[in-house]
Amino acid sequence: MDGVGSILVIDGSATARQTLRTLLVPHCRRVLTASNAAEGLRALDTNDSIGLVLCDAVLPAAGAFEVLAHAGAGGPRVILVSPWWIPADAARAEAEGAAGYLVRPISLRDVARLWKATHHGLSGLTPRMERRPLAKVWLLDDADRVRYVISWDLYDISLTGAFIETRGPLPLGSELPLEIIFGKQVVRLSAEVVRVQEPSWMHVGGVGVRFLEMDADSRGVLEEFVHQSVVVTGG
Question: What angle, 0 to 180 degrees and rounded to 10, lies between the N-to-C axes of helices 63-71 and 37-46?
Answer without folding.
Answer: 10
